[in-house]
Amino acid sequence: MEKERYVPEVKLRLRTRTIEVPKVIYKATGIKILGTRIKSLLFSTDVAVIKNTNANSIIAVYPFTPQLSITQAILEVAPVPVFAGVGGGLTTGKRAIDIALQAELMGAYGAVVNAPTATEVIRRMYNRIDIPIIATVVSELDDYKGKLDAGARILNISGGPKTA
Q1: Whole-structure pTM value
Q2: Which residues, other chains included, contact 27 with Cβ-Cβ below 8 Å and sequence gap of 6+?
Q3: How far is Cα 74 from Cα 77, in angstroms, rounded to an integer?
Q4: Which of 87, 91, 33, 85 is CA-nearest to residue 60?
Q5: How far apart are CA 64 and CA 103, in angstroms?
Q6: Under the phi-then-psi rule, with left for phi > 0, alpha for psi from -120 to 50, and beta for the rest, what region is 30?
Q7: Over the stretch 109-127, which tens digit does the pLDDT of each residue have?
Q8: Which residue of 53, 113, 118, 122 pairs with 19 in a disulfide if CB–CB is 3.0 to 4.6 A?
């Protein structure tokens, strides 16, 4: 049985209400992205929640047309890497690619595309940006292999009703 190492912890009076990830996450190997090891993701666009969590990163997607002002606000508040939603459903093609490039230039660690994103859009985005593309998968019918072949480097397996 592996002995747990003691890690000193400094608690602050005004910041005791943090949304914490389960401690077991520290046993995970994680994934290294742009030189940063990430073991946990918080799925949120709520800046108050983002500012008050100990998650290693944020995945910020929402069911509206991506707006750079929202991406900028999240990036400004987040003390950890952010993977920003860039569209791919109704907002697709050149617009999604342009949003992905802008998110990269603002400091995002990755561009998250929606499930309906065409592989050709992912291919063009891959050739334009220098951060990983995270492709969302919602069911076994999604062409996840095609998305990976087109340039997606990470799959976001959604928690939708047909995902399992």
Answers
A1: 0.89
A2: none
A3: 5
A4: 85
A5: 16
A6: left
A7: 999 999 999 999 999 999 9
A8: 53
Structural tokens at position 102 = 């802008």
Q: Are 96 and 86 in contact (CB under 8 A)?
A: yes
Q: Are 66 and 87 in contact (CB under 8 A)?
A: yes
Q: Where are the alpha helices (DSSP H) in the chain?
A: 47-51, 68-77, 93-106, 119-128, 144-150
- Separation of alpha carbons 34 and 74, rounded Å: 19
Task: Say which amino acid occupies 12.
Answer: L
3-class DSSP state for residue 115? coil
Pairwise CA distance, residues 88 & 97, whole Å = 9
Mean per-residue pLDDT of the chain: 92
